[in-house]
Amino acid sequence: MNIHNDIHPTLKLVRLPHGQDLPLPAYETAGAAGMDLRAAVSDDQPMTLAPGQRALVPTGFVMEIPEGFEAQIRPRSGLAFKNGITCLNTPGTIDSDYRGEVKVLLINLGDEPFEITRGMRIAQTIIAPVTQVRVQEATEASTTDRGAGGFGSTGVA
Ligand SMILES: O=c1ccn([C@H]2C[C@H](O)[C@@H](COP(=O)(O)OP(=O)(O)OP(=O)(O)O)O2)c(=O)[nH]1
Ligand SMILES: [Mg+2]
After folding, report:
1. Which atom of ligand 1 is nearest to the CA of 103?
2. Using a 6 Å cutoff on CB, does residue 102 contact ligand 1?
3. 129-156 pLDDT per residue, tens
4. Which of 29, 30, 50, 153, CA to CA, is 20 to 30 A from 138?
5. CA angle 62, 68, 73 (to 5 degrees)
6. Measuring CA to CA, which residue among 21, 20, 59 is closest to residue 39?
7. What sign does the dihedral 20-22-25-26 (CA atoms) show?
8. Is 98 in the pocket of ligand 1 (CB under 6 A)?
9. Strands 92-94 and 12-15
10. pTM for the complete prediction?
11. Whose CA is nearest to atom 16 of ligand 1?
12. Ligand 1 midpoint to CA 59 (Å)
């Protein structure tokens, strides 16, 4: 039984021509937070990331995110640990009104070239609620115990 009272908003996914034969993102295990994203690079032209190089990797689909939600694009820990591959802009933000192809901005922080092949699970997406606030300008902010202390002001122990 889902702890959120079985509320599952619908995420619409539209496959693009170059993503037709790829599995759509899906939760890999029952309790997975994220759905893995696959590289829609062409079969005969895998993408190779040299150390330090970044690239925008196509996923082959468009998302229609329900209003009030965003999609975050996050790295996969296995690729990060084993190969130094991460998302440069993590967490990437997909706005609910974006109708372009979802792309993953990968960077190779490892010391070996990394080959991205078609269908490889390169990142994951988490659908999360967002709140749009009403902005109000004020002349001063309320006082607190913390005040302006930050960046380690409470120590480490
Ligand atoms: O990892 C990402 C990040 C963004 N996007 C797409 C969806 C998102 O809605 C749009 C804009 O992203 P963002 O707001 O992060 O980029 P920006 O540089 O502020 O561009 P814009 O001026 O278009 O908002 O780009 C992706 O496909 N992948
Ligand atoms: Mg923006």
Report:
1. 27
2. yes
3. 999 999 999 999 999 999 999 999 999 9
4. 153
5. 45
6. 59
7. positive
8. yes
9. unpaired
10. 0.94
11. 93
12. 14
